[in-house]
Design goal:
Elements (H helix, E strand, L loop, with lengths): L2 H38 L8 H6 L2 H21 L1
Helix pairs in contact: 1-3
Length: 78
């Protein structure tokens, strides 16, 4: 593999690794929060689907902010 091809392949991969790690962490955070929500829910109460969905809103805002930041920084580098 030539040096320019190697650079063309390794640089985007190297740039993507932190984003993938952060994405994985956000998914874990969202699942942990939902698990805590389910674990602490009283057994005699039934929530509608919208209540379950709101558990994901706060972590999703952070996740989408990270996606936007990554997209903007990636476009700025290009």
């Amino acid at each position: 593999m030539s040096d320019t091809l190697r650079e063309a392949v390794t640089k985007p991969v190297r740039d993507a690794v932190p984003f993938l790690v952060i994405t994985t962490l956000w998914v874990v955070v969202m699942l942990v929060l939902y698990g805590l929500f389910l674990a602490t829910k009283p057994s005699d109460i039934t929530y509608d689907a919208w209540v379950h969905a709101t558990v994901f809103v706060v972590p999703a805002i952070g996740f989408l902010g990270q996606v936007l930041q990554q997209a903007l920084s990636g476009q700025h580098r290009a």
